[in-house]
Amino acid sequence: MNPVFANLWGRLTSRPLLVTPECARDLTAYLMTRSNMSNGFIVDENTVHSVTDLMAGVTSVKARSDQYDNYYRVMDGVAVIPVRDTLVHRLGLHPHCGMTGYDGIALKIDRAVADGAVKGIMLDIDSPGGEVSGVLELGETIRAAREKKPVWAVADEKAYSAAYWIGSQADRLMVPKTGGVGSIGVITMHADLSKRLDESGVKVTIIAAGTHKADGNPFEPLPEDVRARVAADVEATRQLFAEEVVKGRSGLSVEDVLATEAQCYSAEEAVEIGLADAVQSSKSAMSDFVEKLSGRTVIGPIQSKDASEMDEPNDGNRPGDINPDDTSAEAPKGVDAKEAIGGERKRIAGIMSSKEAEGRKELAEHFAYETDMSVEAAVAALSKAPVAVADPLGAAMNNEPNDVIGDDGGDDGKENRPSKAETIAANYAAATGCKAKG
Fold first, then answer.
1. Residue 427: what pLDDT?
2. C-beta separation of 152 from 121 below 8 A
3. Is the pLDDT score of 83 beyond 60?
4. What pLDDT, in 10s, does the model give residues 163-173?
5. 138 phi, psi to nearest 5 deg
6. Beta bridge partners of 416
7. d(Cα 64, Cα 210) in Å, to the nearest integer?
8. pLDDT computed for residue 251 by the predictor
């Protein structure tokens, strides 16, 4: 018996899955093309599997060695932990046959937290999703790890469904420009083999104690009441999924997450609605993570939806940068600190990603980072401000009066012109209707 095939069959049918529709279709096609029904048995390339084994969902997989020298790669103090391919509940420490186990990922995270050579953890995600079983516990493991060491994640190239559940629990989630995230939904399938059995002359008699003991079996059509109950269970799992996403990304609400209706989003779309923090390549994300761990300041968790890479690290002089890991800042009385930070992140994102911020970056950054202006007020002010010219030097030269210097080299009148600071203050006042501070 091929245990991997039997394992996949049992895990695919009649169980809720956190995968994209395309992944579910491909898995089904793979199993159906490699199998056929013969006298009550599934035949896989001349290997016979009893249907009772398949119904039980055989979980034994061919033994293999987990004796690797390292649990993960460490790069400049960052433990890189892969989250790849189809995700399953239990598979051991290392990926096998296109599957990665939640148990192995959790063990690596625990080891990285305890490893003195590791300063931070990067989850390197490229997966369409996987099983429901086990992902909740892994999400809790990631959140617990965040209390001790920074955990970042990058969807290189995709983090859908269960993979997004995992990525959403990190302190920060980046997506390359060609990547995608989402599919926050649940799917399950029922295989009705009754017609095929009839054609083969096979009649299966089910003898069960308990009205619902044989519900969902593959040897008869699915009754409507059973289908309705399964659908309710699937919806309840989607609700749980949304609640767990919000635990990892406090700037979102459960309603925000459910409103996605399991849609898959591009990188820019994901950043715009708050499912991700930045459009950024894995290489750039790793570089910024190393910079952060070394103590150098990098731009906070907000990324313009129009940018393909994160802005360069600032010079440390910008006040009000938002640190997603710092929940020690005093929040208004009665307001949770994490909720306050999440709201601030959304406010900054709304200002910096607005159409009106284009060509007015410095003023937009001033509104976002140095004031508490609402998104609406900032956008309205930006719309009234002049757009930066493409060639500021040329414009400055064109606007410079053509002074004639007399023979006596006398006064050119410059002392009567406003200073640069006064000009900036005047532009600010014109845009906002408020006098600049001090």
1. 62
2. yes
3. yes
4. 999 999 999 99
5. -65, -40
6. none
7. 39
8. 92
CA 225, chain centre distance (Å): 36
For the record, the structure tokens of 96 come out as 């096998």
Residues in Cβ contact with 40 at an 8 Å cutoff, skipping those fewer than 6 apart: 51, 197, 202, 204
For residue 269, give both structure tokens.
């779309």
- Mean pLDDT taken over the chain: 76
Pick the CATH number of 73-187+236-283 from 3.90.226.10, 3.40.50.2300, 3.90.190.20, 3.90.70.10: 3.90.226.10
pLDDT of residue 81: 96
**DSSP designation for 68:** -
Say how far apart CA 242 and CA 164 lie, in whole Å.
11
Cβ–Cβ under 8 Å, residues 356 and 383: yes
Beta bridge partners of 43: 36, 48
- Nearest to residue 124, comparing CAs of 86, 151, 150, 89? 151
HSE-CB for 165 with a 13 A CA cutoff: 34
Mode of pairing for the β-strands spanning 278-279 and 172-175: parallel
Instruction: Give the global pTM.
Output: 0.59
- What does the H/E/C string look like for 297-332? CCCCCCCCCCCCCCCCCCCCCCCCCCCCCCCCCCCC
Answer whether residue 20 shows pLDDT above 60: yes
Contact yes or no for 257/168 (Cβ under 8 A):
no
| Paired tokens of 379 | 């956008």
Q: Would you state the pLDDT for residue 429?
A: 64
Retrieve residue 128's tokens: 């369409």
Tell me the domain boundaries of the chain.
73-187+236-283, 332-398+418-438
pLDDT tens digits, residue range 216-259? 999 999 999 999 999 999 999 999 999 999 999 999 999 999 99
pLDDT at 61 over 50: no
Gap between the Cα atoms of 174 and 187, Å rounded: 26
The answer on pLDDT for 4 being more than 70 is no
In the numeric block, which tokens belong to residue 369? 């980072």
Residues annotated as part of the active site? 161
